[in-house]
Specification:
By secondary structure, this protein is mainly alpha-helical. 70% of the residues lie in helices and 0% in strands.
Length: 71
């Protein structure tokens, strides 16, 4: 059950990372994680990249540019 809950939380975090400029620490709290360390570890376990990398890659895909996006 915990794995399912974490998966749902991470899916919500991915949506927030894609659709907003909300700080990662705030997204962590909004998704129900009490620790940013635990959030980062869980996000990477599920997504295979960190939240920051996820946001950067998504923004590059959205803009169609190969330049690095400053976060």
């Amino acid at each position: 059950i915990i794995e399912y809950i974490n998966h749902v939380r991470i899916m919500k975090a991915q949506t927030l990372l894609k659709e907003s400029d909300t700080k990662i620490g705030t997204i962590c709290e909004l998704c129900g994680f009490g620790s940013i360390t635990h959030f980062g570890r869980t996000f990477k376990d599920i997504s295979e990249i960190t939240p920051k990398e996820f946001r950067r890659k998504y923004k590059i895909l959205q803009t169609g540019k190969q330049e690095q996006v400053n976060l």
